Amino acid sequence: MTAHDDSGRLHGVKACVFDAYGTLFDFAAAARGCRDRLGDDADRLTALWRDKQLQYTWLRAAQGRHADFWQVTGDALDFALETLGIDRPGIRDRLMTLYLTLDPFPEVAGVLQRLKAGGIRTAILSNGSPTMLAAAVRSAKLEPLLDAVLSVEDVGVYKPHPKVYQLAIDRLSVPAPAISFQSSNAWDAYAASAFGMKVVWCNRYGQRRERLPGAPDHEVTTLSELPAIVGVR
Questions:
Q1: What are phi and psi of 222, to 5 degrees?
Q2: What value, to the nearest 5°, has the Cα angle with vertex 118 and ends 117 and 122?
Q3: pLDDT tens digits, residue range 165-220?
Q4: Which residue in 20, 42, 55, 110 has a CA-CA distance of 20 to 30 Å to 78?
Q5: CB count in 10 Å sphere of residue 216
Q6: Is 19 a catalytic site residue?
Q7: Active-site entry in 19, 103, 188, 217
Q8: Burial, 94: exposed, middle or buried (Cβ in 10 Å; 0-12, 13-18, 19+)?
Q9: Section 67-96 average pLDDT
């Protein structure tokens, strides 16, 4: 059976697995929640914080010097604050606290509800530490809509290491071709495809296509299209 038919629908999907930050949860919400203190620096801080956060995950993985995502997120924030010359009392603690309760994107709860009602298993597979992910899921009231919340801490290395994608297979007992993986990060989407999963790239940020192994089966701008793609009405 082919991965999809002429309509674009993916066949044989038994589980939908989601990246967390940028895919389910809006990482810009933390700085946005401090706009009263940050003003015009909020957007610049968000961009630099996120870029450095991801760079540190890749560099730590390459060096074999793992630290959990809470430390990496704090280190990246310190770099961004210093680079932008932001030195305001209490701002670091406030930003880090807000990162634990990031807003979900508007369509997320409804999409997860539809998938569950359609018999599709749902899970998060994230760089986030277990504590961070539990806080975000609880704040967004998504616990009843997820079958599993999986952290890279269980394998001790960050995406896009193949061990991370294998974790979803092992924990869900679903083979890679029966998993639809969703990420807003192009590099993550391509890596999951190269690993053997079906992939829906949720390109929320207008990224260009990567020149990397793999290729997403679908590209969407929000997750609202996902249920139809995996055959859920």
A1: -140, 165
A2: 80
A3: 999 999 999 999 999 999 999 999 999 999 999 999 999 999 999 999 999 999 99
A4: 20
A5: 22
A6: yes
A7: 19
A8: middle
A9: 97
Instruction: Select from 190, 185, 177, 186 the least CA-distant residue to 230.
Output: 177
Roughly how many angstroms between the first and final C-alpha of the chain, as a whole number? 21
In which element (H, E) is residue 151 found? strand 148-151
Q: Measured in whole angstroms, how far is the alpha carbon of residue 90 from the centre of its chain?
A: 28
Instruction: Return the number of other C-beta atoms located less than 10 Å from residue 124's C-beta.
Output: 23
For residues 223 and 205, the answer to whether their CB atoms sit within 8 Å is no
The rounded distance, in Å, linking the Cα atoms of 118 and 133 is 25
Strands 121-126 and 198-202: unpaired
137 burial level (CB within 10 Å; 0-12, 13-18, 19+): buried
Which residue segments constitute the domains of the chain, with CATH numbers given? 15-26+102-229 (3.40.50.1000), 29-99 (1.10.150.240)
pTM assigned to the model: 0.95
> What's the chain's length in residues?
233
pLDDT of residue 8: 79
Kindly tell me if the per-residue pLDDT of 9 is higher than 70. Answer: yes
